[in-house]
Amino acid sequence: MIERLCVIGVGLIGGSFALALKHAGQVKHVVGCGRNEANLQRAIELGVIDEYQLDPAVAVQQADVVFIATPLGAMEKVFAAIKNTVPAHAIITDAGSSKQSVIAAARAVWGELPVNFVPAHPIAGRENSGVEAAVVALFNAHRVILTPVASTNPQAVATLSALWVAVGAIVVQMDAEHHDEVLAATSHLPHVLAYALVDMLAKMDDRREIFTYAAGGFRDFTRIAASDPVMWRDICLGNQEDILVLLDQFIDDLARLRQKVAGKDATGLLQIFQRARAAKLRTLDDSRKDQQ
Amino acid sequence: MIERLCVIGVGLIGGSFALALKHAGQVKHVVGCGRNEANLQRAIELGVIDEYQLDPAVAVQQADVVFIATPLGAMEKVFAAIKNTVPAHAIITDAGSSKQSVIAAARAVWGELPVNFVPAHPIAGRENSGVEAAVVALFNAHRVILTPVASTNPQAVATLSALWVAVGAIVVQMDAEHHDEVLAATSHLPHVLAYALVDMLAKMDDRREIFTYAAGGFRDFTRIAASDPVMWRDICLGNQEDILVLLDQFIDDLARLRQKVAGKDATGLLQIFQRARAAKLRTLDDSRKDQQ
Hints:
Structural class of chain A: alpha/beta
Largest sheet of chain A: 6 strands, parallel
Oligomer: homodimer
């Protein structure tokens, strides 16, 4: 049981974490912190937090766990703001979608990563953002990746893991470099492509009609593109290198596929489509095995 | 009430059309036709069709409506096979995802489009294919686009429209050129991108792990890439020109976005993401208005 949890950035992720921990009986008192006072008042009304502070330096005082769920671009400022007041025993963690950039930001402020800082990334989200979208079950059966460094206190990792498990998440550990590579492929690149497609079609003359006839394919893309733009801008900057590698590879692959369409290369096109489908189906089989 | 419906290509679309018409009491007898006899026997067991013929020339005899739901690449052969035996009064229609190529294939066989041929495209589908996936409600509340030409018999269009309405579809008419432009944007390009992404990631070393950590974004892409590869090969060839125009534009746009990531252009990235999100939300508003 945590006596005092401080959530900095009370939106979908921060709010859901607080709600889920309360629901699981894992926390006594939640202090919310953010720049938008109306949002924090709403969070109190919704029972997500018990009190709020506008100043992070004040919010973290006496906290046992500090959960930072702001966009990536705000993290270094938050670290600097809490540096002198966060209790030494407090576990500090975050929900950033790229981990090397968070670790770099923390090192820029503290010199070394504080031993009780456990960088983390819950792989959960939806197209709605803000505290109104927060729900108890957001992390249920979702993976949370922890990326501690060599100097991280194992006890802090264990305590944080237990909290995530208590809210139904599946906890995995890997190093930050590997996290960033995998997430660039599974999340960052797909989001960039979805944004690029929706933006391109939105600029076309028959935009209204195109969105009306959105068939299966495009509907999925538009759903993705409804995600929070600031969050995704920060992810593109935070995980820039890994995203660039994959973007370049994808542009090359797409140019090759374009040549197959232009050349009416029926065999070449079928090969790509069959390979992709087989990979998808093979993975379905694998994940069924995992669940057994 | 149709006395005799002939479905050529008894898969997801052909099977669901037959099932839905039966369920709506709109058809007495359904003849299925295809190359795979085991599939046709299964279609009888499932109550989708009442009898089957392996030869299209025989299957269409005495039919009142002929529904062709094969992949696009097979249509010209089917047209040639039925040309001499399809009754003059029978309405011929199809479910092809590109319409100019279907009309061209029909003209190649008949010289002119038969007056009772109504090219059509039901905008419905799922990642599962085959008659086992056929369901009564597949077209319910989905759009069906009819693309008659100037010489098409208006009575045939009216009769076919009524059938689609009877199975719950929303019928829309436009010319084939416009259909192909709109569908290239809303369906064909998104599918091509999804296939390209899944294929690229499937070739990477940590494939297994990448598919395991598939977050929201990528899961949607893999779902799309599970569609029937032959169908999509044929669509790429059938709607080649419109797809190429959009693919080229997308590759250009993506290269520009890549430069913004490489240059850490926070403002430029945010603009793209905000514009895409706004387009998506604006369309949501529009479609809510449509439903009122």
